Amino acid sequence: MANSRPSEAHRSQPKDQAHEDEFVFGRHAVAEALKNGSAKTINKLFVQNGLNSDPVRAIVDKAKKQKILVSQVPKTKLDLLTDGGNHQGVMVAMTPYAYATLDELFAHAEGHDPFFVILDNLEDPQNLGSILRTADAIGVDGIIIPKHRAVGLTSTVAKVSTGAIEHVPVARVTNLAQTIKQLKDKGVWIFGTAMDGQDFRQWNATGSIALVIGNEGKGISPGIAKLMDATLTIPMVGHVQSLNASVAAGILMYQGFTSRGGK
């Protein structure tokens, strides 16, 4: 099929921080947040008492160079603030993650045909973080999520993404169906998943495309399904006839990446 369209992170809040602060923890995620500190406002770095390894020292040095307040705290406090997460002794308090606009997603794809991923009411932050990580690995130009009844960018998402949240723009829209129609008007072909769809291994993902991944339990909602230009299926021969949303997304994204020549 030629793809050329005719014109047409669990959040925890310490008492001494503003209620709107977001918390990102784990050495890799914190290092990425500091690296991109110009785009996000980091208010404070929390470091576990007694930690002095090379990775932790590098994080502290970078924070100090950016004139970010560094606070030494006991491990019990970090355990509390991260709700028992694997913080590895470091955490930053920062303003919530900023969302991109649809125009900014297209600007991110300047010079080539865009490859977007649309998440239809995904609810699990672990899945969103994992999808962001894969999206960054293959060069997806942006992810689109609905504003209501869906997971947003949180500290858990940041942690699972291992820094990819800093590199893949995410647009949050009020009306997903209307956004898909806008994408179509810009020449983007929309692909979704369905049991009777084309075998994903024959997917021609060249051109301007957007891949829709449905909700973990319900799949793509009926109203959104009607807007697909084509549907894809992942053949399964085992006893379990469904895949985790992030696993399915990863398989399809890599097929798209391969179909587009690995670019």
From TrEMBL:
<dbReference type="InterPro" id="IPR001537">
    <property type="entry name" value="SpoU_MeTrfase"/>
</dbReference>
<feature type="compositionally biased region" description="Basic and acidic residues">
    <location>
        <begin position="7"/>
        <end position="20"/>
    </location>
</feature>
<dbReference type="Pfam" id="PF00588">
    <property type="entry name" value="SpoU_methylase"/>
</dbReference>
<keyword id="KW-0808">Transferase</keyword>
<feature type="domain" description="RNA 2-O ribose methyltransferase substrate binding">
    <location>
        <begin position="23"/>
        <end position="100"/>
    </location>
</feature>
<dbReference type="InterPro" id="IPR013123">
    <property type="entry name" value="SpoU_subst-bd"/>
</dbReference>
<dbReference type="InterPro" id="IPR029026">
    <property type="entry name" value="tRNA_m1G_MTases_N"/>
</dbReference>
<keyword id="KW-0489">Methyltransferase</keyword>
<dbReference type="InterPro" id="IPR004441">
    <property type="entry name" value="rRNA_MeTrfase_TrmH"/>
</dbReference>
<dbReference type="Pfam" id="PF08032">
    <property type="entry name" value="SpoU_sub_bind"/>
</dbReference>
<dbReference type="InterPro" id="IPR029064">
    <property type="entry name" value="Ribosomal_eL30-like_sf"/>
</dbReference>
<dbReference type="InterPro" id="IPR029028">
    <property type="entry name" value="Alpha/beta_knot_MTases"/>
</dbReference>
<feature type="region of interest" description="Disordered">
    <location>
        <begin position="1"/>
        <end position="20"/>
    </location>
</feature>
<protein>
    <submittedName>
        <fullName>23S rRNA (Guanosine(2251)-2'-O)-methyltransferase RlmB</fullName>
    </submittedName>
</protein>
<comment type="similarity">
    <text>Belongs to the class IV-like SAM-binding methyltransferase superfamily. RNA methyltransferase TrmH family.</text>
</comment>
